Amino acid sequence: MAPIFKADDSFDRSLFKGASCAFGVFDGVHCGHRFLLSCAQQTAAENGGRSIALTFDIDPDEMFNADRLRKLMSNDERLEMLTQTGVDAVVALPFTKDFAASSPEEFLDRTFGGHVPAHLHVGSDFRFGAKAAGTVPDLKAWANSHGMVVDAHDLKSEDGAPITATRIRKLLAAGEIVKANHLLGRPYFMTGIVKPGRGEGADMGIRTANLVVGDQLRPLGDGVYAAYADVEGKRYKAAVNVGIAASFADRAIATCEVHILDFDGDIYDQYMKVEFIEWLRPMRKFDDIQELIATIQGNIDWVRKNL
Ligand SMILES: Cc1cc2nc3c(=O)[nH]c(=O)nc-3n(C[C@H](O)[C@H](O)[C@H](O)COP(=O)(O)O)c2cc1C
Ligand SMILES: Nc1ncnc2c1ncn2[C@@H]1O[C@H](COP(=O)(O)OP(=O)(O)OP(=O)(O)O)[C@@H](O)[C@H]1O
User: Fold this and answer.
1) Residues of the chain with pLDDT under 50
2) pLDDT digits (tens, 9 = 90+) for 5-34
């Protein structure tokens, strides 16, 4: 697996010399990002240099659009997934207020510190520097005077539109999990530590492992989904309610309630990963508890038969 370097003051930027870098946030590490990373691997193989995923330690929108940010994964998950894309190294630039305020030219000077890569791969929509003022032509002008080749690629498209993190977030918000997974090239997942619920699930004969996933990490629309749950190194079928259970909204705090099929272990305080596969129905408020139980049982039966 590729090492992760945090590009703080102690980072040796000579790592960039002769390298082929792909530059971006890479939230979701989707098929478009993987295409760009494979281009960096290709020029690295041709030139004999390293291939590097160049990114930021946080998502810049955490600084600028925190209230409406719906990330596809945590920063640690994003860096970790980048290490598994086949690049030789992942470099995370600390995205501080000061760095974000750099002019486009200053931004590039500070990023490379005098050690420019041989190739820099970006998408044609790439912007950089304060107020995202830097464009691909600006990048090319800087690169010309520093001996770097910029490869600005047309965005990889699917079904007639570019694959972007924004497009995937919109699909997830609408519960369109199959389409979102197609653009991600893998199932969308949520992760967290299992917390005790209210115990009402057990009383109803349907135990649930509960995650409290904050808004910033919950682009997926409320609803009931068929999924797989990874617990204790094993993968189980699962029926999942995403969102605060409408029938118990006055006392519920979990935002991802997972009924794991054929499982009755105690996994409180354990890490769980939930991979979403199909949307089953909207979440509803039930006045009759028996109707809620019968509906959930129907969802569990569907998962058992179809996943
Ligand atoms: C597959 C599934 C579907 C669910 N659908 C709904 C729903 O439509 N409306 C609702 O209010 N709660 C729904 N729930 C949430 C249950 O009401 C919840 O799991 C129960 O209140 C148990 O909570 P507890 O784990 O905190 O004890 C669903 C749960 C599961 C596992
Ligand atoms: N579909 C794509 N094909 C090729 N390159 C892409 C594609 N999408 C993004 N890129 C490039 O990958 C890098 C990372 O981009 P970024 O993280 O901004 O992705 P994004 O998916 O476009 O996100 P957002 O929708 O939030 O703008 C950038 O250089 C960007 O131009």
Assistant:
1) none
2) 999 989 999 999 999 999 999 999 999 999
Closest atom, ligand 2, to C-alpha of 124: 31
* Strand 189-193 to 271-281 pairing: antiparallel
**Three-state DSSP class for residue 282:** coil
Ligand 2 within 6 A of CB of 136:
no
Tokens representing residue 169 in the block: 């977030």
Distance (Å, whole) CA 286 – CA 295: 10
Distance from Cα 241 to the centre of ligand 1, integer Å: 6
What are the residue ranges of CATH 2.40.30.30 in the chain?
Answer: 187-306
Comma-separated ranges of CATH 3.40.50.620 domains in the chain:
4-162
182 near 276, Cβ under 8 Å? no
pTM of the model: 0.96
CATH of domain 187-306: 2.40.30.30
What CATH fold (topology level) applies to the domain 4-162? Answer: Rossmann fold (3.40.50)
Query: Which residue is closest in CA terms to ligand 2's atom 10?
Result: 123
Instruction: Give the ipTM.
Output: 0.90
**Structure tokens that stand for 288 in this block:** 């009759």
105 touches ligand 2 (CB under 6 Å): no
